[in-house]
């Protein structure tokens, strides 16, 4: 075996031709001892104490248990004990119980696709015996006594001993990783796994509500997870996660039975806007397997962030069932991920169902609860502005136009908010505008800053709405992202048409619109190092200057930079309050707004942004000023191609070091290249996972996009079919 150190030495030798050494003989390949193989494999299946608990509990579930209890000592390193009341293990199976690849759940490969048990690899117990001391006590139905036996390295340490036993099986795993010093040390140093174990069992308990679960620390009287068998899932959630979670949940369901392949059904519970938490909890079961799915998690988080901009992260329980042959359960060593057929379509359907549910629920809630907030904000309101339309405040049931959503007159006791207090009209407003209603009003309720009432911002938002092109809106809402066609254009499909869509234009517009919608209600991105304005603006000025003969202008540039810095410092309070762009008194930029969750702008563009704020914003007129700052932010946050050339393609030349005019082979600037690769990969990820999903939810594409090359139709399937027919 080659170890790390010999590898390093070899590389050093290659890099220094002076020490010429005869080429090394190829190392001999040997068969590893079985115990080594097993221990390596075990380290993969049992990565930490919580993975052992998961395997043991799954075995208990597979054994048809109705009660499972777990006891843990020292975060699981000292002891994990899982007891169940399942069918037990036969005496004659005990000798091979802990050998690798012994299982009662699978006999041939094809069984994988019709399997209903959790386990199938016959590896878990074996793995545990290679990294811990395992003792099994079990009794099967009709026996008067049970058996107890201990295992090490896959085999029994002694013949099974008769013993008294209660129904089912108890497995004790002691001294986990006793023979893997490094892992034990890391685990001892990291926060202990007990929290993870509690989390795991809580999740299991709410899904398997026909089984009672308990989990406690060794020696503790009180269990940290305690669920009783209950036919109601909501009851299980209540007993495990508490009343505060259970009372704020709504049921969601969606199913699809498309003969062409996308068949699934999902049911679950999602939190409403009363629920408060800093962390998303997604309890996801696919075909009864507890799994993780970051794409679904993100999709749901995006909807919550969109619908309740200042709201908490959601609690979500979902159980998805698909035909067994559509799920590959065998892609991850601990089975914590699965791969699904039609995953993207399924996620999209779930995402839109969650959105509808949340929106409808919020309509009701917002209408009911605005009153209290309204009174509070009236009392604290320092502003008095008389732009309220008396006609509007007198209206009873008329739908409220989006631009009139926010109260602008604190002197009018009814104010514009009055419109929200009306009972919901019977004919529900159409999907789009009702979503905006909720967004604006929820924001108002959650953060009653007076600033959001500025009518100029409302006018700008109304401008966006009125320029919206209905056909493009339909396309944006329903298109599917295919991939990037080049650095700027993405290929998207809508119905039977393929389009090239300019992601720079689209993202710029989206960011601009979102800046207006989140006006004065941004979360903030804290910069790790405050950035000095004057230096950055100077940098931008130098970059902008194409004339190389400009050294003599340096003074001038410095003066411009100073002036712009002073100007921005003067405007700092406004920039912070309305846009969450924070400039401290020393002229350093230290905070930027979150425009779309999960997205930070390309920091290489900060200089350009600052220059643009200083130069292009018309500060005197309120509306133009807000528009200018929002446009500058929009341009900064847009998904421009990274400044480093794209290394996949001709751009690679940029990373080749040159010696005179001769390209030096194998002499790539590796650091720069890897920076560039990361930047491009990150951007593509953001385009697919942030830009397109957010566009579907928020973008109101202006009519100009239909003609300015932002959307170009490149093919239509009908026409293509016609061409193929002729061939
Ligand atoms: P797998 O679950 O993949 O079959 P394991 O190593 O986890 O592999 O378990 C091996 C076998 O031991 C199982 O197939 C099952 O027959 C038996 N077994 C393990 N735990 C229990 C239990 N708690 N009750 C009954 N049988 C069990
Ligand atoms: Mg198992």
Automatic annotation (TrEMBL):
Keywords: DNA damage, DNA repair, Kinase, Nucleus, Transferase. Residues 237-359 form the DNA mismatch repair protein S5 domain. Residues 1-21, 378-399 are annotated as: Disordered. The keyword Chloroplast does not apply. Pfam families: DNA_mis_repair, HATPase_c_3, Mlh1_C. One of its GO terms (molecular function) is kinase activity. It is found in: Nucleus. The keyword Electron transport does not apply. One of its GO terms (biological process) is mismatch repair. One of its GO terms (cellular component) is MutLalpha complex. CDD domains: HATPase_MutL-MLH-PMS-like, MutL_Trans_MLH1. Signal peptide: none annotated. InterPro entries: DNA_mismatch_repair_CS (IPR014762), DNA_mismatch_S5_2-like (IPR013507), Mlh1_C (IPR032189), MutL/Mlh/PMS (IPR002099), MutL/Mlh/Pms-like (IPR038973). Belongs to the DNA mismatch repair MutL/HexB family. This is Histidine kinase/HSP90-like ATPase superfamily.
